[in-house]
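Notebook, bench 3.
Goal today: get a predicted structure for Agmatine deiminase-like isoform X2 from Phoenix dactylifera so we can plan the truncation constructs. The sequence was checked against the plasmid map this morning, with no discrepancies at the termini. Length recorded as 310 residues. Pasting the sequence as submitted so the record is complete.
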Amino acid sequence: MARDLEGKPAVLGFHMPAEWEPHHQCWMGWPERMDNWRDNAVPAQRVYAAVAMAISEFEPVTVCASAAQYTNAYGLLHGKDNIRVVEMSMNDAWFRDIGPTFVQRDRKPISGSQEQQVAGIDWTFNCWGEAEEGCYSDWSLDILVAKKILELERLPRFPHCMVLEGGSIHVDGEGTCITTEECLLNPNRNPDMSREEIEDELKMYLGVRKVIWLPRGLYGDEDTNGHVDNMCCFVKPGVVLLAWTDDELDPQYKRSVEALTVLSNSTDAIGRKIDVIKLHVPGPLYMTEKEANGVDNSNMIFDNIYLKSI
């Protein structure tokens, strides 16, 4: 059984690496919710399988599927030596948000010790806003996913009571984290914590020394309350991609200008000025009537999903 670690990861020498650093493997969830994925999730499952197979050309992939979907997932992925399919219960497939945040340390273990160099942070998950504002009413399976992954990998766990999803943070691996006020300061996450308290926890658990707060995330991202992952990300230390539009009438424009202002007046943890690369976002994407009709709304429990058809 994987053990829980006491103390703060940063104090113990751990930090969250940048996403471009070498991985040991990739973890993916398997989609199946009919009220979220159209046509019994079949189109989504084919795409997930294709993504898993593409990643497996470079690193091992673990795909987690429910008992009901295990045979289906195994059948679509069977034959790829670098992919394993394991059975795991979950409420939906958003592993970036519900899985552990892996942290590592570079120091060598004391000779003869069993000191692990990789561990996982198990944040509290409340379905992006709890029952009143969250995406579905039951997330009792999702809250166990991080712990299960760490158990399977026999990696130590840092449990944390703070509500946080993986998509709400982004790091450069050299001490800098970017996040948004819209998400982490939302009352539906940690209403009893101040900005300073949240920032202190990010520093102590991610091993960062500086947090850059963008005001808001991408326009229309009500589901996650403005996650940073589709708004801005590091592509290398000191350089970020920023979602952008030149159309001043686009509701995204003010959000992008706000973020650009913050980034242009910020330095990273090492003192470098932030170089911003503007990445133009596409216009609105709409479901076709056929696609919308493929979503099973008979037992719809999403309160904040709006289906648009053309």
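Residues 42-55 form the longest helix (14 residues). The mean pLDDT is 92.
Flagging this for group meeting.
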